[in-house]
Amino acid sequence: MKKRFIFFFVLLLLVNIPVIKAQKAKADKPNIVFILIDDLGWMDLGCQGSRVYQTPNIDRLADESVRFTNAYAAHPRCVPSRYAIMTGNYPARGGVPQNRSKLKVSEKTFARFLKEAGYTSCYIGKWHLGDDETGPRGMGFDKSIAAGHAGSPRNYFAPFNATGGKKWKEKKSPIPDVDNAPEGTYLNDYLTDEAIKFMDENKEKPFFLMMAHYAVHEPLQAPDSLTEKYKTIIENTRFPEGPDYIKEGTGRCKMKQDNAVYAGMVDNMDMNIGRLLDFLKKNNLEKNTIIIFTSDHGGLSDDGYRQRRLATSNQPLRAGKGWLYEGGIRVPLLIRWPGVSTPSVDNKTIVTGIDFYPTIAALVTGKQVHSDGVSIVPAIMGNAMEHRDPVFWFSPKARPGSTGDANSIAIRDGNYKLIEWYETGKSELFDLEEDIGEQHDLSEQLPQIKRTLLKELNRWEKEMKIKTEQQ
């Protein structure tokens, strides 16, 4: 009898070893949901100060997160910014965008790191870093949905890849994996359905979800009901006195958040993020899931000599997408890990896109990875971080026709930021603590600081093997 009991006990133990291992792995490893929004400006959320856009779900997330107010994209345009997020390196180190516009197969991404750490991963939405071998599956993700070389959809309403006979749409890369969407489906809704399906199928093991919305990038299209809602809101909003546009570079900069269609896109994006949060809570995954929410660069507020409809205003930040002024690179950043991080507003820590890889690695494994970025885990845990080394930006492919900017390079060290417009030899120095809008150039008043920062920029240029030549 005793031998029979021991036999069945051992058999039961052997049968359940995989379950025990899975439960232990689940307990040791938090899930990660990384929400990356396209073209979302620093001021495009209620929690960031927008008086027009209604974002109750993201605002709720902000209340439960560490909200970093000194967070930056690594570049003011999509491809280089996303390259930095995936690799943890400055885009300039990889020759992006000056020499290439996609990943190399040999490059290590944080998806590959997480795969080695035992995560099941899925990339949904905008990739824009290559196809096939350099698509999400080739770079470490187990699953990929709607992620290819497309930088934006042809349409936000299904059929998403329809061109309607328009040649400019035909030039846009199609989005893969979306042709089965019912006609009229809004793209954000469809991608969120897929994200929830992935989480539901993998909720018994540690998962990583990269939810990379195409929104709120052009084309500006929103559900009619939301557009009408914001027409009324905008009509009843009292904006500060001043012009609708001011001159910036070769074009204009938008000064008011008064585009009802764009506002509707932000609203729908917020609603779908609320669906993700609700799923996690309903399925008791909330406490063991790290959420990261950010944007790939600043909002589209500037045009060039080819004037076009602009999406938003980044005021009080200067300029927007394409520029190395704050409006082009400063982004919202929320990080939540219930029971581990303490909800707060961090006004001190400087974070850039190169920091996500080392931070994620440290959060889930405690390991350090070699990259240009630094782990901001101490700040997430509520501890003040010491002054970090200077951070840099290099934007060598300006678009004076569409965003009005010029080729430039920049450095931020503490409160001081210097931008060098290297083709003309002009430099501007700002104290961001006192002048977040970058209206007061201090380069003549503080020549020693200017020289010090220029020297550091020159050192970084040599390290990155880039050339900035004055014409």
Concise summary:
With 471 residues, the protein is an alpha/beta fold. The chain has twelve helices and 14 strands. Strand 12 and strand 13 form a beta hairpin.
**Morphology:** globular
Please list the strands of the largest sheet in the order they lie side by side: 4-3-5-1-8-9-2-10
**SSE sequence, one letter per element:** HEHEHHEEHHEHEEHEHEEHHEEEEH
* CATH-scheme architecture of the largest domain: 3-Layer(aba) Sandwich
Decide which structural class fits the backbone: alpha/beta
Average pLDDT figure: 93
Low-confidence stretches: 1-26
Q: What percent of the residues sit in helical stretches (DSSP H or I)?
A: 25-40%
Task: Please tell me about this protein's structure.
The chain is of the alpha/beta class. It folds into two domains: 30-383, Alkaline Phosphatase, subunit A (3-Layer(aba) Sandwich), CATH 3.40.720.10; 407-471, 2-Layer Sandwich (Arylsulfatase, C-terminal domain). Helices cover 30% and strands 15% of the residues. It contains twelve helices and 14 strands. The chain has helices at residues 2-28, 56-63, 78-87, 110-116, 167-170, 187-201, 224-235, 260-282, 326-329, 356-365, 377-380, 447-464; strands at 31-37, 66-68, 120-125, 143-145, 207-212, 245-248, 251-254, 289-295, 333-336, 344-346, 391-395, 408-413, 416-421, 426-431. Strands 4-3-5-1-8-9-2-10 form an eight-stranded mixed β-sheet, with helices on both faces. Strands 11-12-13-14 form a four-stranded antiparallel β-sheet, with helices on one face. Strands 6-7 form a two-stranded antiparallel ribbon. It is globular and about 60 Å long. Mean pLDDT is 93; it is low at 1-26.
